[in-house]
Amino acid sequence: MQSTSQGGSEPILFTRGVPAVEALPNQLISTCLQAVLEGPDGRSILQYGHNGGYLPLRRLLSEQYAVSADQLLVGNGSLHLQDLLSALLIKPGDVVLVEQPSYDRAIKTFRRRGAKVIGIPLEHDGVNLQALEKALAQQTPAFMYIVPDFQNPAGVTTSAAKRQALVDLAARHNFWLVEDIPYRTLRYKGESIPLLRDLDDRHTITVSSFSKLISPALRVGYLVAPVELVKKLTALAEDTTLAPVLPTQAAVVEFHKRGYFASNLESLKQLYAPRLQAIVQALKTYLPNVAFAEPEGGFFVSITLPEQNDYSDLLARAKQAGLILTDGRGFFADPLDGSKNHEHLGENFVRLPFCALTPEQIEEGVRRLAAVVA
Amino acid sequence: MQSTSQGGSEPILFTRGVPAVEALPNQLISTCLQAVLEGPDGRSILQYGHNGGYLPLRRLLSEQYAVSADQLLVGNGSLHLQDLLSALLIKPGDVVLVEQPSYDRAIKTFRRRGAKVIGIPLEHDGVNLQALEKALAQQTPAFMYIVPDFQNPAGVTTSAAKRQALVDLAARHNFWLVEDIPYRTLRYKGESIPLLRDLDDRHTITVSSFSKLISPALRVGYLVAPVELVKKLTALAEDTTLAPVLPTQAAVVEFHKRGYFASNLESLKQLYAPRLQAIVQALKTYLPNVAFAEPEGGFFVSITLPEQNDYSDLLARAKQAGLILTDGRGFFADPLDGSKNHEHLGENFVRLPFCALTPEQIEEGVRRLAAVVA
C-alpha cells in the first residue's frame, strides 16, 4: 500500500472527539433493542411518542439527578438541545459567554441563532474570573456555556472554588449557566467535583448525552432544567422533530437495567486511561517546553504553541508530515478585549483527542507534531 | 369501569394521523436491528456518521427516485426536513403558499421560520388554479407546499392536469414546489398519478418518510432535491443535530433487503382499506348532506360542516358525546383574500383520521359526530 505521508506510514488523525470504534458495544445494544422491541412495550415504542422523550428514560435520569421527570428533556443528541436552547433563549443583540477556547460547534450554534459569542480566557482551573466580571459589567448574557469537566477542547476541569464563583455570579447577575457534561463520568483519576447544579440549580441548565458513554449514533442526549423552561423547550422540540426516536431511548434504559452501563463504563475507562497517560507522556517527551493542562479524564488534551512562530500554515505542514489536525481557530469566540489581533486567535492552538488512537499511534502522532513545530 | 361519555362507552379519538398500533412490525424491526448490529457494520453504525444519512439508505432511495445519492438527505422524520428547508429558504418578508386546508404542523413550522403562510383553496382535484395565479401575481413565494396524494387533512389527490399546471407555474414564476408524499404508497384503489418531480424536477423538492410505512418512532424521513440545495441542507442538519441515527436508518435498509417492506406494505393496505371503506360508508349513511372528497388511500377523510351553524364549541360538544376531535382551525393558513372572517376559518372543518380505528369504532364515531352536528 502506498504511503500518503512523508513518514512512510498511515496518517494519524487528531481531529474529531469520537469514541474508539472498538469500544462501541454493538452486541449489548443489539441485545437491548431486541429485548425492548420484543417485550410488552415493543409496539408502543414504535409509535409516535411524546417529545419530552421516553418516560422511563426521563424517570431513570430524574433519579440520577434528584429532580422530577418533568425537569428532563431527552433530545436527539446534546447539540440538538443546545440548538433548541439557543432558539429559545437568544434574542437579537444578545451576548453568549463561553470559555476561551470552547467547543467549536457550540460557538457556531450560538452564532447561527443570532448571539454575539464572547470568550472568557480559560485557565488551568477554569475561566479567569476577573475577565468574566468585566464581561458581566458590560452586558448580562443570555447564558454562559461551560464544559466544567475535562473541557472540550482544553481538557481543563473547573475547580470547586471557581464553580462556586460561577453560580454566585449567575445568581447576582441573573443569567443561565449551561453546563455541558458529556465526559464527566469518564474520569480516569482524581476525585469528582460537584456540578454547578449541585451548588445552585436555580440558574443552571445541565446538558449531557450518551454519545461518549454508549454510542454517538443512538443520538440520545438530555437536558435538566427548571420545569417551566423544560416545558417551552419540549414544545419547540415537538415543533421541529415531532417525536422522539423511542427505540434507541428504550435501549438506553435497558442498557442500564441489565447492568451494562456500569460494566461498559469500566471498560471505557480501562481502554482510555492508558491513552491519556500516553499522550501526556508523549507531550512531556517530545514537546517539553509546551505547557498544557493535564486532564484527569475525558477525550482531549490541547496545547498552545509558542506565539512567536508563524502557525498560519500549521494544518498544511502537519498533513505533509502525516498528521491530520482540526483548525484551532474554530474553538475561539470573539475576545472580550477587541484589541487583540482577532483573526489569528487559535492559529497556534492544537486540540489532541486521544481516545480513538492507540498509545502507539498517540506517541507517533505527537512525535510528528513536534517535528512540524520544532 | 365508569364511562366518560354520554354514550356509555369509551371515547373515540379522531385526532392524530397515527398508524394502527397493531400494524407496527416490532418483530421484523427487531430482526433487522439485530442483523445490522451484529453484522460487519455493527460497530460503524454506532459511530458518528455523516449527516447526509446512512449511505446505503441514500443509495436505495436514489435508485427508487432515479437520482444520484447526493440528491438525497435523510433526516429525523419529514418535519425535521421541513424545518431545515424553512430555515434555509424563508427570508424575512417571504410568503409560503399552501393548500387551504393544509397540514397544521407544516403551517406552524413555516410561520415560526418567519413566513407569511397563505392558503390556496383546495378543491376535490387539487388547488384552485385561478386563486393560485392571483397569489403568484401578488408575490413570488419562497416555496409552495403541497401534499399531492391523499392530502393531510383533506384526503384529496391532485389530478394529473393540476400537477402539470403546478410545475408549469413553478417554472414560469421560479419558485420551489415542496411535495410531501408520506402516504403516496398507501393507495387502496385506483391508479397512481406521476409525482411533481416526474413532470419537472428542476423546481421540485420531494419530502417523504417511513413513519406511515414502517414506524413513526424510527424517525426516518428523507428529501430529494437538486445537489446544491441538498449540500446546504446537509450542512445545516450537521449544525443542528450533528449526526444521523444510523441504527434505525440501517434497519430501514435491512427491512427492504429482506423483502419485509413489500410484505408489510401489503399488510397495511389490507388493514387500512376496509377502514377507508367504513368511514366513507358511515359518512354517507349518517351525514348524507355533507359533501367530501372520497380518498383512494392515505390516512384522512375530512368534512366541512354547513356554514350556517355555529361550530365554535364543536370540540367541546363532541367531547361530551364521547368523541375527541382536532381543532380544525389549525389546518387553515391566512386567506389570500383578507375579506373573509379570518378567525372563524376552519371552525366547521373536521379531519377524520381513520387508520388507527377499527371499522366498528369508525361507524360509532361518525354516528356520534352526526348526533352532535345534526
Entry summary:
Two copies of one chain form a homodimer. With 374 residues, chain A is α/β, with parallel strands linked by helices. Helices cover 40% and strands 15% of the residues of chain A.
Question: Can you walk through the features of this model?
Answer:
The structure is a homodimer of 374-residue chains. Chain A has 374 residues and is an alpha/beta fold. Chain A has two domains: 12-25 and 262-373, Aspartate Aminotransferase, domain 1 (Alpha-Beta Complex), CATH 3.90.1150.10; 28-257, Type I PLP-dependent aspartate aminotransferase-like (Major domain) (Aspartate Aminotransferase, domain 2), CATH 3.40.640.10. The first copy, chain A, is 40% helix and 15% strand. In chain A, the strands form three sheets. In chain A, strands 2, 3, 4, 5, 6, 7, 8, 9 and 12 form a nine-stranded mixed β-sheet that branches. The radius of gyration of chain A is 21 Å and the shape is globular. At the A-B interface, helix 1, helix 3, helix 4, helix 8 and helix 9 of A face helix 1, helix 3, helix 4, helix 8 and helix 9 of B. Chains A, B: Its cofactor is pyridoxal 5'-phosphate. Chains A, B: InterPro entries: Aminotransferase_I/II_large, Class-I_PLP-dep_aminotransf, PyrdxlP-dep_Trfase, PyrdxlP-dep_Trfase_major, PyrdxlP-dep_Trfase_small. Chains A, B: GO terms for molecular function: pyridoxal phosphate binding; transaminase activity.
